[in-house]
Design brief:
single chain; about 450 residues; alpha/beta; inorganic pyrophosphatase (n-terminal core); 2 domains; 6-stranded parallel beta sheet; 6-stranded mixed beta sheet; 14 helices
Length: about 450
């Protein structure tokens, strides 16, 4: 993978940038899948005349990366130099798209998009939101981890692509997402187990799956030093339909602990305002014992009481799957709380339900539910701005609204271009790191 990063110096010589983009939660599976898939595509296209530069982009602002403690831990163990990573505020994807210089491969998510867009391939392990086409093959298979599918793809080629560094990254993601291959939790599949076993056989000095899972699980669930807005941002995905935008955040604590947060209602209100959200659903999750069997509970907040109640009704009434919600006591009048009887219904199962509800709500209110696409056809997560600005106390009515939290150009000048020099500088710095580490083991 180090050689792959070096080769990105050719950025100035190519006309198209092929970005491999994970989900906006940027969890361990998404981050690893982005790097591994980009490395694979770079290796299999190297030497081809006119081959695009392949760049893995982590789908969060650089300033939020420190919140992903488990990702940081695994990357450090694998010897990934942090300064070589590219984040969504390092690259103006909207400008690349407008200039017809962008090709996108999506991993660990499969957003809907209008025809003729930049997406050229999808690899995911969630329920499909888009169908395959001649210009965009879609590989969606319900397994525990997208890293399983990426590893399978890598192993399908005769090239010597897989080394110890890459194997550790993929192995760690699969071990975490499958909960150490636990059959009790119900996430692991035969394919996950087979791929993990293949890596263990090919690289016998990989750490034991139990020890690695324990270390990464501890880092993932640690909330030390984090404020509520950080906790909500740490693992958040958004759904937008029309003029409505809602988030579902996975929160690693019990419902009781979450509701004991000081001034929780005001903090949720401030969070919705700062992130331009109409509603936020917090899925609390913790393990009741050493089996890592999850206990899931839900909190629903919206400043709009009607929207709050309707979201609650939609989640209570859904049968695909049934969440089996039962009301829990809440000390706040504008916060609804529920115990979730179906512990297997993860956020990936809840998001389509919420998206369907928002679409229905928009149609019922006479709003075009597809306004979440920007005017040029780029989905809202790639566009510079696609949602109305909700004024905060700091607004004085002057100047353009800031790009939404979900924008891939958040923090980038909207009139800027892909900064090739800045990207090349990352790899020049990385070279210095590599020279210092030459001859040392990857972990």
């Amino acid at each position: 993978m180090d050689t792959f990063l070096k080769s990105s110096r050719s950025a100035a010589k190519v006309s198209v940038v092929h970005v491999v983009l994970g989900s906006e939660s940027c969890d361990l599976d998404s981050a690893v899948s982005s790097l591994a898939m980009a490395y694979f595509l770079s290796r299999t296209s190297s030497g081809r005349l006119g081959a695009p530069l392949v760049v893995p982009v982590l789908n969060i602002p650089r300033s939020q990366f420190y919140l992903r403690a488990d990702v940081l831990l695994l990357f450090r163990e694998a010897g990934i130099a942090m300064e070589t990573l590219v984040f969504r505020d390092d690259v103006d994807l909207a400008r690349l798209y407008a200039n017809r210089r962008l090709a996108l491969t999506l991993v660990d998510h499969n957003l809907r998009q209008q025809p003729g867009g930049a997406v050229v391939e999808v690899m995911d392990h969630h329920q499909p939101e888009r169908t395959a086409s001649l210009s965009c093959p879609v590989n969606v298979e319900i397994v525990a981890s997208c890293a399983t599918l990426v590893t399978e793809r890598i192993l399908s080629r005769p090239l010597e692509i897989l080394d110890k560094q890459l194997a550790l990254l993929l192995y760690g993601a699969m071990v975490v997402d499958s909960v150490n291959l636990s059959r009790l939790v119900g996430k692991v599949t035969v394919k996950d187990s087979q791929i993990v076993h293949m890596l263990q056989t090919q690289f016998p000095d990989l750490p034991s799956s139990g020890a690695l899972h324990s270390a990464l699980h501890k880092a993932k669930f640690s909330l030390s030093g984090l404020e509520m807005n950080h906790i909500l941002l740490r693992n958040m995905k958004t759904v937008a339909r029309g003029d409505l935008r809602a988030a579902v955040s996975v929160v690693y604590m019990s419902l009781e602990s979450f509701l004991l947060t000081k001034n929780l209602q005001q903090q949720l209100s401030d969070f919705c305002q700062s992130q331009q959200l109409d509603a936020v659903v917090a899925m609390t999750i913790f393990s009741s014992d050493q089996s890592y069997q999850p206990v899931r509970q839900l909190v629903i907040y919206s400043p709009d009481p009607v929207l709050r109640q309707e979201i609650s009704h939609a989640l209570q009434n859904t049968q695909s799957p049934a969440l089996c919600l039962s009301p829990a006591s809440s000390p706040y009048k504008d916060i609804l709380a529920y115990h979730q009887g179906n512990a297997l219904a993860s956020r990936s199962k809840l998001l389509p339900v919420l998206a369907h509800f928002l679409s229905h709500w928009c149609r019922g209110n006479g709003t075009d539910e597809q306004v979440d696409q920007s005017a040029d056809g780029l989905p809202h997560v790639y566009a510079s701005s696609a949602h109305r600005h909700r004024p905060g106390p700091e607004d004085n009515g002057n100047g353009p609204p800031p790009p939404p939290m979900n924008s891939l150009v958040d923090g980038c000048p909207l009139n800027g271009d892909f900064n090739q020099e800045a990207l090349m500088e990352k790899f020049r710095r990385m070279d210095g790191v590599e020279e210092q580490q030459h001859g040392r083991n990857a972990y």
